[in-house]
Amino acid sequence: METVRLTMSQAVVKYLANQHVARDGRQNPLFAGMWGIFGHGNVSGMGQALEEFRDDLRYYRPQNEQGMVHTAIAYAKMKNRLQTFACTSSIGPGALNMVTGAGTATVNRLPVLLLPGDIFANRMPDPVLQQIEHPMSLDISANDAFRPVSRFWDRINRPDQLLASLPEAMRVLTDQADTGAVTICLPQDVQTEAYDYPLGFFAPKVHTIYRGVPAPDALADAVALLRQARRPVIVTGGGTIYSEATAELSDFADAFGIPVLETQGGKGALPWNHPWNAGAVGSNGGLAANRLARDADLVIAVGTRLSDFTTASHTAFANPDVTFISINVASRDAHKLGSLPLVADAREGLKALHAAAASAGYRADAAWGDAAETWKAEWDATVDSLLRVTTPENLTQANAIGMVNDAAGPRDVVVCAAGSMPGDLLKLWRPVDPKSYHLEYGFSCMGYEIAGALGAKMADPSREVFIMVGDGSYLMLHTEIVTSLQEGMKLVIVLIDNGGFQCIKGLQMGCGSPAFGNELRARNPETGVLDGPFMPIDFAKNAESLGALAFRARTESELHRALDQAKQADRTVLIDVKIEPGRGVPGFESWWDVPVAEVSGRPGVQQAREGYEARTSARLWRG
């Protein structure tokens, strides 16, 4: 057997550079490169290998380990999970900074390979710098924290263990039903140890993504359910977009007269003005979709994990006789809410169900289509009114969203993750392209926005990328602005400055408590709490200090002018938009389960608890 002598780190780089993915006859490298921040735990191992084999795998330098993971998974999202990055860190705090990113990846079913440095496998330098000493076991390190947030986890204590570990990692990364964060911990001494690896281990490998089809019996059962339905709806999730099934979704809705309801992940699967697109459903949904969900007698879920926000904490689908069909590559998702499971690729599942339903001569009731049309028209008019600027000198968050949407081209991308903005964007943003709406709302991870936008831009530099981010989230992780400048990847950051966590303040007050601890205010020496003046933060100067261009907008005309200048700019831009706190977009005939204190001396909390108990008692359980 022919072999080649390499260090473990060199073998990792060589192996990753030869992994490819193919689907529908199109092939590309699995890894677009490796992000890394070097420290004593990886600079002489993985760092050495990346420098020596720089032509095999490109290295990227971020500013924060969490940020680089978010960039990687946003890139994977834009690439429909067919390409991603690897990320390397030193040990200890550098590694633990990636744990949040790992959770974000796994919750959202997005592939990323994490290679944290680890303590010495030989245990001679003990305790090494940044080592956590566990009193019950010598083989536990900080990296064990990755176990619950990874789809696959391993530690390489001998260089030959790569031969078993890396192929398993590739299986999980390319498994459309089971992907997420893959963590392989690399002890720093083993990174530099050499081994005679089989040359065949580095032969180019193509991982083909095969499209699964529904089982014939399950398909027949689904058609039987569909034939009984008079008022069906489709709930579309991110899997529809990852599967490139948007044309099939449109054809299915048109053929059978079925309204389509959007999740955060599925928004954009149909253009907002498609005649069967009723808009967002659930806790952050709109009038049309929530009314259709309420009355539906059949729900066809396509590529969605039916999260709490989508189901409005299991209150959205209120018809006691409603049934569910779920098309999903993941069996667990396909069985949720007692669904009849069609375990299949979204595109192939829709095609199969379409053909079978057409053979059965199915069509939803005409009156149901009329109701959908009426409610959609009412909802579109409601959105128009929310977007309309009525006080040009005092903008609302909805006004800013509408103006950014108007400034964006049809293929441009909006990126967001946390706060009140995701709910408002779900209701108000009007996409016409499947990849133009990029929300991380599985983990709703504050700090994702700028790093994620960088990944989206790198995945398709031809698109302008607009970031809608609140001031609180911006303060958590904005340093990847530097990376965007370093890589020549222009971003347009629209920062909504509303004085802190207004979304959670609203939730807090909705649960009966007074405002407390959520706004960016100074501590009041008289009260001892944070209810003093708002902090005078100059976000424009902050962005300028990092090398970005910056503009301030307080009025309609100023924001129009700033957006025009931003589109003409040659590098990353931040627009600081000051809005009045508390002027948010309302909810529309929906609910979200946020528990209220059962015992309290505050009358507001007592009253909120009564309302909470009334809502929970009306919830329908479905297995």
Written account of the structure:
It is a single chain. With 623 residues, the protein is of the alpha/beta class. It folds into three domains: 3-208, Thiamin diphosphate (ThDP)-binding fold, Pyr/PP domains (Rossmann fold), CATH 3.40.50.970; 216-379, Rossmann fold; 388-499 and 535-578, Rossmann fold (3-Layer(aba) Sandwich). The strands form five sheets. Strands 5-4-6-7-9-8 form a six-stranded parallel sheet, with helices on both faces. It has a six-stranded parallel sheet with strand order 14-13-12-15-16-17, sandwiched between helices. A six-stranded parallel sheet has the order 19-18-20-21-23-22, sandwiched between helices. Helix 10 runs parallel beside helix 14 (346-359) and helix 11 (287-295) packs antiparallel against helix 15 (366-387). The longest helix has 22 residues, at 366-387. The N and C termini lie far apart (55 Å).
Detail the poorly predicted runs: none
Task: Give the integer mean of the pLDDT values.
Answer: 95
Helix coverage percent? 25-40%
CATH level-4 homologous superfamily of the largest domain: Thiamin diphosphate (ThDP)-binding fold, Pyr/PP domains
Distance between the termini: 55 Å
Number of strands: 23
The CATH architecture of the largest domain can be named as 3-Layer(aba) Sandwich
Look at the helices and sheets and give the structural class. alpha/beta
Which range does the strand content fall in?
A: 15-25%
* CATH topological fold name of the largest domain: Rossmann fold
